[in-house]
Task: structure prediction
Amino acid sequence: TACSSKYVLSQMHPMWQGPLAVPGGDRQSPIDIVVRKSVFDSELKPLVTDYDPDTCQQIWNNGYSFLVEYDDTTDKSTLKGGPLQDKFRLCQFHFHWGESNAWGSEHTVDRRLFPAELHLVHWNSDKYSLFEEAVMEDNGLAVIGVFLKVGKRHEGLQKLVDALPTIRHKDSVVEFTRFDPACLLPTNTDDYWTYHGSLTTPPLTESVSWIVMKQHIEVSHDQLAVFRSLLFTSAEEEVQKSMVNNFRVQQPLRGRTVRSSFT
Ligand SMILES: CC[C@H](C)CCC(=O)Nc1ccc(S(N)(=O)=O)cc1
Ligand SMILES: [Zn+2]
Result:
């Protein structure tokens, strides 16, 4: 899909972590969510996700994370409600993780780090006709963030974990069908924080309505270990580098308010 091919353009080695010159740069992501400074907003609605597993197409290693991509040529897998005024189309989901269980998430809650974080990426199909248009607009994207904790095995995740050894190297892709991303959402999707931010990898465009779930999901130690068996490097490269620590450091809040859907 468009979102995926474009994503490969933006794949960068984590070395870019530095303060890249970003237009404006006053609404960058990720951030630390300071719970006691978040503001309850009673206008915030429950999230409404409507994902069709038949739109799942492929899974691939883009040299920074692994992406599960969805057919976003129709409104078959959508997100609406929450803080959003429009309908958003799912185009892909991916994760960020650490080399150890002590860190790996991009967002933090009162400075608390999680071992990994899931991002479900959607674009505003009411206002734009293509992902790459939406990615440049300030209300173009909506990304749901879900924290992962190490605990019991996540049955729904296992199908995805089993596919990872087939895409160990950068630019490898395999067909991946009939995966319902709703199984990766926590049981409670009514409680979330939301704020206006950016993509967390280049082009770092400030086009994202972030929706960070309060409730985490659990995955097993072994499942997370398979994430770490992926490689940043392609098959040809002599030195193979483990795909770990593919997260961006927290960015300044710059006066933004984080709203909460719960008290
Ligand atoms: C013109 C298209 C441009 C290359 C964007 C391609 C893309 O989809 N990038 C992307 C998506 C999600 C995140 S995150 N980690 O969820 O903030 C980071 C980067
Ligand atoms: Zn991400």
